[in-house]
Amino acid sequence: VELSIDRRPLAPASARVFRSVSPGLPPANNKNAGACGDASACECAACQAAAYIGINDWYTKPQNLKHIPSEGLFVARSADDKAAHLPVGDSTDSNGHDMQMQSSGSMAVPLPEQPVVPVPTGPIGIKVVPALQAIAVGLAIRFLIPLPAGVTMQGWTMLSIFVTTILGLVLDPLPVGAWAFIAITATLVTQTLTFAQAFSAMTNEVIWLIVVSFFFAKGFEKTGLGERIANLFVRALGKSTLGLAFGLNVAETLLAPAMPSTSARAGGIFMPIIKSLSAASGSLPNDPSRLKMGAFLTQAQFQTGIHSSSLFLTASAQNLLCLNLAYELGAEVPNQFFQWMAGAALPSIVGMVVTILLVYKLCPPGITETPEAPKDAARRLEAMGPMSRDEKIMFGTMAFAVVLWVAGPSIGISAVLAAMMGLCVLLASGVLSWRDCLTYTPAWDTLMWFAVLIGMSGQLNSLGVIKAFAGSAGALLTSLDMHWMPIFGMLHVAFFTIHYMFASQTAHVGALYSAFCTMMLTAGVPPVLAAMSLAYSINLFGSITHYASGQAAIFYGSGFMTLSEVFKIGALNGLVGFILWGVLGMPVW
After folding, report:
1. What is the pLDDT of residue 561?
2. Can you tell me the distance from the alpha carbon of 322 to that of 531, in angstroms, rounded to the nearest whole number?
3. pTM
4. Beta bridge partners of 104
5. Other C-beta atoms within 10 Å of 123: how many?
6. Separation CA 281–CA 276 (nearest Å)
7. Please, what sign has the CA dihedral across residues 251, 256, 259, 262?
8. Which ranges in 190-270 belong to alpha helices (H)?
9. Which of 238, 267, 242 is nearest to 252 (CA)?
């Protein structure tokens, strides 16, 4: 059987159909002649040919196709099986490419030419006005503002470049990775940093955990395991998009105490599920259709993470780190696990509910009610059949990684090493190929820009810039001779706001937690209140920017959120969370 395949860019379609390569060919050795239900079980020539169509990974999986020999159709199992029977030439793959197949005995006949839909074009390269605005602010800081006491010229130059970088990420003159590369190059041109200093964060464990988590997401997508899990969620909770959001957040909250890496939870489990749920509803990343479902689910999971990471002491790695630092300062928290949960239970639970509803209002999904979704999901699960070999390996690998994420610290295995071991299994088993990893651009793009921001943030701390600002703020507050309560509030506002200069929660803890805790204790703040409120605050600003934390980089890299949405919704939810935790948590703390 020979195929002639013609690929042309067309608008995406929800259903995908292949005309049988030999419509008149009698089904050979097919026990269910006339309507075989599964291409993987059918032995007719057309179904056997389907297994060798090397067009798209999804289409080469026989379990994703069903063949109707009597009609000469291959019907792809998709989110919408109602539109399955399309004429040849009306079907497209997931990338919007026309897939046409026609048979003529042993000769392939070229298909008739069709007009190509013109691809919109726009300006190529940098957006001049936003770039000049970002650069102008940086130059003003460097040359117009007097050098503060305690800050070196090298540190001041570093700050001006960092501010320019952040403004560029907001104004978007270039893609994030490209702007970050230009910024790090500027630090070398101005001799502010050495090459080793500029790229020092490339060895950061959190960054590589994020990169490997992206590859796990690719595995979920390629094997179909993500689609299967998504359908299970839809079957249980899929009557509304809001119900899905609540279900996903409850799942993360229950998983969090045993899996303290927020980056691993986001990249290894929940972002792949969200992508599969969205794809099943025709909501695609980096596309206007993302607003149907993907944007809302991603924002809801991203923003509620600040609460689910705070409910349990072991839900995030920095929680224990904060209490250990406080203990060294004399602010001991008795019965840490119980005290932590008692102080977090009410604001965390209320915060998750309020945040999901607020995101639902700020980023409303185009698809809200899906009463037939559970039934459709059940049918899709039945059509998918039992788990394939690759799905089983993917599931086992993720279970292996989760076990190591939970028990790893006690046996000397870090979270990133556990993830790397899991990726090795996927590569060795053939579930993922090295080409899959090389061509998965979100992982490498995130590696570039996130490493640049973490490196710059670390250098600001090393050069004494952050310490100088913290010292000035502390001296000002203590000179006011006020009651500890207003000083407590102002220090928290400063502690929260200054995170816009950090690209890591752990780095923020290392640089400022002890300093701010000391200032609070000096002002007369009760030790337990100072220690726990600052520790909770570390989680609360984890979603204010796309670089605020490891999971922020993962959610932003999914393609379901724009930068403006991240900053706008992140700032509002951060403020709401800040107030909510203060009102509901203070009486317990």
Report:
1. 92
2. 7
3. 0.57
4. 107
5. 7
6. 9
7. positive
8. 195-198, 205-223, 225-237, 241-255, 262-265
9. 267
